[in-house]
Design brief:
Elements (H helix, E strand, L loop, with lengths): L1 E5 L7 E4 L10 E11 L1 H8 L13 E2 L3 E5 L5 E6 L7 E11 L6 H6 L1 H14 L7 E5 L4 H12 L4 E6 L2 H6 L7 E4 L4 H14 L4 E4 L3 H11 L9 E5 L12 H6 L2 E5 L7 H20 L7 E5 L3 H4 L9 E5 L1
Parallel strand pairs: 8-9, 8-11, 9-10, 11-12, 12-13, 14-15
Antiparallel strand pairs: 1-2, 1-4, 3-5, 3-7, 3-15, 5-6, 6-7
Length: about 325
């Protein structure tokens, strides 16, 4: 079969011939792959920079962690891969497989799950979002940030504030549910002043952070209390596009009613992951099929994987490989 294969960490994937996977037990099934999204998580794992990266395989490794494909009986599904998925065939887990509704394209369905997990899991299980709450999304111009806006609104958020550096994309977020935008191109004083004004009028309940780094330091510093009672804030780190470490004053933790946690691989419980596949993803696929959840995608053919791998996909689009 044809597949996207890497032989050493950090190299570009090659369009190559690779042995078709073989079903090993009753919990596995083979699908004919139709579409696979390329995510920052996949790129981090392949480069060796993500904490879940595996050892190199000198015989080559098919890349990709999930896929949209077709079962032998013709059922179209989204599924997590047991091995790599950017290939003509892939082994997937039966208990992490979801039939897709009519009305959603292969590309759209493939683009969503990583972003849904990167937003809905944080909102439901770490933040325990309640209707009427105010949500700040730090770094909302990317694909997952755009998904987070819509899912937060679906879960009942009353007000959504978004930050980012891409001015054009920031403005477009108002059309999908954002209520107020904060440009990170402003100087620190202007950013903090805008945050304080928001906090006075509609106190922030939840912060989803896809950037970390310096912008996280700014946000946390503005929350610092002065010895009085403070509004409870749930701050969830999901990504680190602006840097993996920050300086955090202990006085911030002592002076604010602050829940600081993370949401990602390894932090979710088995029960939470089970709900992701049984409830959350099916609901989001249906919303997208009904055009109530907007996604921004760009497609590339499997044969062009090496050329497209490092393409700069603009405006928060998700790159999807069509097989």
């Amino acid at each position: 079969m044809k597949a996207a294969v890497i032989y050493e960490k950090g190299e570009l994937p090659k369009y190559a011939e690779f042995a078709e996977p073989i079903v090993q037990n009753e919990n596995e099934v083979l699908i004919s792959v139709k579409a696979v999204a390329i995510t920052n998580l996949d790129k981090g794992i392949i480069s060796g920079n993500h904490y879940s990266s595996e050892n190199e395989n000198q015989n080559g490794t098919v890349i990709g962690s999930d896929a949209v494909g077709i079962l032998d009986n013709g059922t179209r599904v989204y599924a997590r891969g047991i091995n790599g998925t950017i290939a003509e065939k892939a082994l997937v887990e039966k208990n992490r497989m979801i039939p897709l509704p009519e009305g959603i394209s292969d590309a759209k369905a493939a683009s969503m799950p990583n972003a849904v997990a990167g937003s809905a899991m944080a909102l439901r299980f770490r933040a325990q979002i309640q209707p009427g709450e105010t949500v700040l999304i730090n770094g909302a111009t990317g694909f997952t940030g755009q998904m987070a806006i819509q899912i937060a609104k679906h879960y009942g958020a009353k007000k959504i504030i978004v930050t980012g550096r891409n001015e054009k994309t920031l403005q477009s977020l108002l059309a999908i549910g954002a209520d107020e935008i904060i440009s990170l191109k402003q100087d620190d004083e202007a950013i903090v002043a805008q945050l304080k004004a928001i906090q006075e009028n509609t106190p922030i309940d939840i912060i989803l952070d896809y950037l970390w780094g310096y912008s996280a330091e700014l946000i946390l510093s503005f929350l610092k209390g002065k010895g009085n009672f403070t509004h409870r804030v749930r701050y969830i780190s999901i990504g680190a596009m602006s840097g993996d470490t920050i300086q955090l004053s202990a006085s911030i933790l002592r002076s604010v009613d602050l829940q600081l946690s993370g949401s990602g691989l390894g932090s979710w419980t088995k029960e939470e992951v089970k709900l992701l596949f049984s409830e959350i993803l099916p609901e989001m696929f249906l919303l997208a099929a009904q055009n109530n959840l907007q996604v921004n995608i760009e497609t590339v053919n499997l044969a062009d994987i090496e050329k497209a791998w490092n393409n700069d996909v603009s405006d928060g689009k998700r790159l999807v490989v069509m097989v």
